[in-house]
Structure formats: structure tokens, C-alpha cells
Amino acid sequence: MISLQHKTILITGASSGIGRATAVLFSQLGASVVITARNEEKLKETFALLTPHAGHQLVAADLTLQADIERLISAVPSVDGLVHACGKVLPVPVKFIRDKQLQDVFSVNYFSAVHTVAELLKQKKLNQAASVAFISSVSTLHAYFGGGPYISSKAALEGYAKVLALELIPKKIRVNVLQPALVNTAIFESTVDAAINAGEMDKLIAQYPLGVGQPEDIAQALAYFISDASKWVTGTCLKMDGGLTLGFN
User: Fold this and answer.
1) Less crowded by CB within 10 Å, the N or C end of the chain?
2) How does residue 205 score in pLDDT terms, banded at 50, 70 and 90?
């Protein structure tokens, strides 16, 4: 059985969706979790769901702001793991892409990850033999219309993760990436509501042999990557798509 006993884990984007599910599961597995996101009220909702355990901490922060990142890392203890789950989806056809859309998406999906890790290392808050896990997307392998900003930001994150894994080998810190397809979270519900009608959504769901993913499915995989069960795994990308892309590899 996977255990996170005696581990302190920082989880970004913990106010909802994958981040919230991960925080709840990790607390059940014995970890002390430090949760962060911009929305403090929703963070408090997540905090109330955690299995009581010494060391849980809530720090509201906007990780697109360097000052908030520095404040967050200063406030947390040294951690044994980081799950970077904050993300933003913004469908934009290529002919309409402008700097504003790119900045909006990259600041959340890419720059926040890079700057958070840099600050953890700068303040020496990432323990020896720690584990880092990023949430990317299966869309970096299988593009979709309007996905230019989002897919580009996630592809950049995957490239960065490989370099980070290489550079942190001397500290035995592992770095891995999950590539989920459609997961039933509020962020995707809002995107679908804006871009797809009900009939098209039913057709999309039908393409998933194992059904659409749930936040808890991703949380379980993250538990493996953060735990010592994956101590021989680094620099990998795990595709999680419920069989969506079978036959298209």
C-alpha cells in the first residue's frame, strides 16, 4: 500500500479539481499537506476536507506573482514533495492568438511552475530525495483545434520537467509529469460549456472506452509518483486518457 507517512507535500491549485482531490487523498495517506491557490475561501473548503494530521497548512497565494511565490515558500516548512496542479485552459483559434492570451496561459501553466521550483531551491526548502510532479495534458501528444496557447504551455512544462529531472539527480530529487485527457473538473466544465453543445459533448464522452477521468484518478497516480514506491522513476511522462488515444499512437 502506498504511504505518505512523515512526508510534507506542497500542493498548488488546491482550491478545486485535481489539486483538491490530491490534497484530500494525501492527507488520508498520512502526509502533512500545505495547500495553496488564489481563492482563499475555496482553499478553506479544501482544508476542511483534510484528514486531521499535524502540520497541515493553508497559504493563499497567486503564483503568477513573484512576491506571492516568495511569501509562500518563506511560510512553508521544507517539503518532501511538490504537486503543481494549478492550470488554465483558454481555447483560442490560431489566427486570434495575441500576446495577452499567451501571457495569461503561460503565467499559470508554465511560469508559475518554474518560479515556484526555483524559489524552493533558492530557499533550500526541497528536501533531499524529494519528488516533484507536474500536471500536463495528453493534448501535447494529440492536438485539438483552438489549443495553441494551452498545448504550447504544457509542452514547455514537459520540456522543463526533463531538464529539472536531470539537474536534480545529484540531490536524488525525482521529477515526473502526468498527461491526463478530459477530467471532470470545473475548469473543463466551463471550457466545454463555452465551446461544445450537449450533443457534441455526449459524442466526446463516448470516445473514452474507460469513461472520462475523475480528479481522484489523477490523485492516485500522483500519490505513486510522490511516494517512495516510485523511487526509481524520474523524467517520465505518464499518459492517462481512459483509452481515448488507443490506435492513434
Assistant:
1) N
2) confident
Residue with cell 478553506: 44
CB 20 within 8 A of CB 51: no
Cell numbers standing for residue 238 = 505518464
The amino acid present at 166, given as its one-letter code, is: L
Q: Is 29 helix (H, G, I), strand (E, B) or coil?
A: coil
Distance CA 11, CA 49 (A): 15
| Amino acid, single-letter form, for residue 123 | Q
The residues near 233 (Cβ < 8 Å, ≥ 6 apart) are 174, 176, 225
pLDDT at 221 over 90: yes
114-137: pLDDT as tens digits: 999 999 999 999 999 999 999 999
Query: What is the CA 79 to chain-centroid distance, rounded?
Result: 16
